[in-house]
Amino acid sequence: MDFKGSDTIPGPRREDQLPHTAQAAVKIVIVGGFGVGKTTMVGSVSEIRPLTTEETMTQAGIGVDDNYGSETKTATTVAMDFGRISITDQLVLYLFGTPGQQRFWFLWNGLFEGALGAVVLVDTRRLEVSFDVIGRLEERGVPFIVAINSFPDGPRYPIADLRGALDLSEEIPIVECDARRRASSRDTLMTLMRFLHSLALTGQLT
Prior knowledge:
Blueprint: E1 24-31, H1 38-45, E2 54-56, E3 75-77, E4 81-86, E5 91-97, H2 108-112, E6 117-122, H3 129-140, E7 144-149, H4 159-166, E8 174-177, H5 182-201
Parallel strand pairs: 1-5, 1-6, 6-7, 7-8
Antiparallel strand pairs: 2-3, 4-5
């Protein structure tokens, strides 16, 4: 195959190109259990067409993946989701959504490399799936905030009760969000950036 022509290999689409004013890029991971809305959040907030690695769920996952609360879900992330959002003219966030099933958690190590912080998406119908997720972030020393994703049939609890159930320190922000809505997802990311800024000011961010 001849690739000598200058127009043989297309370049990035105009809408995918970085703003010429961009001076800094930050890697952020969106984590959580199976079906909590990670792919939805990346897709709703990304200013470029997001990259997804969703595959159709098969019989092989029965009895292995806990899909309680997500029984109508027909596809699942098997590697990562990727998107990008410009917070300011100078600051760009690269978003990496992790796979939720524990059998794919071995991929998390690579996705965490170089990450400045994380958003933990939580489904109040299944709080228990967040315990191991938070534990892994704490073990790796990755700063994070918790975002309670709004599901129509999800129970609502006082923030103090959620903090106690998830065993979170008082300094870790907990916010409510709707991962389907761009503005809500962007506000969640801004909360994370403010948290990371506060850690940097006190010397806790390395």
